Amino acid sequence: MSLRRLQTKDNTLVLSTIKEISGRRIEERRRRDRITQPQLARAAGVSVRWLREIEAGNPKSKLDEHLACAHRLGLSTTHIMIPLLLMERRMSIPEELLVEEDLSELEDRYIALIYEHSTAAFSRRRSSFFGLPDDGETS
pLDDT digits over 24-70, tens only? Predict the structure, then answer.
């Protein structure tokens, strides 16, 4: 089975694909949780008409609107953020990343990795600034 990837040479295509998938996920979660469009629109600060456009994946919708809707629904935003990072680095995006239902485990792993990296970097900077050993212990 070959791994299909979305090439990031065309940023417009990548962004419209992200919005289409995000809109579908937002609608699916809203329906699953039995939240009406007026309820979600009010909570996310958009009009009901525009929420319909977001759910339809309108390429003119803004990513911050997708993020607001996803946040209000308790939906992971990894399906938006990781493809954006890959696009920024001109890396292809595995199709499986875009179609995976629940990316919360992946999101948790990324957050833990970023936290560990940041903590280690801070510890190194602190140690070199104060002349402490790398483990942070004083002599």
Answer: 999 999 999 999 999 999 999 999 999 999 999 999 999 999 999 99
Residue identified by tokens 């809109």 is: 23
Q: What does residue 12 show for φ and ψ, rounded to 5 degrees?
A: -65, -45
Query: Rounded distance, CA 27 to CA 91, Å?
Result: 28
Closest CA to 50 of 36, 37, 31, 32: 37
**Residue 139 in tokens:** 């002599």
**Three-class secondary structure of residue 60 per DSSP:** coil
C-alpha dihedral, 15 to 21 to 25 to 31, nearest 10°: 110
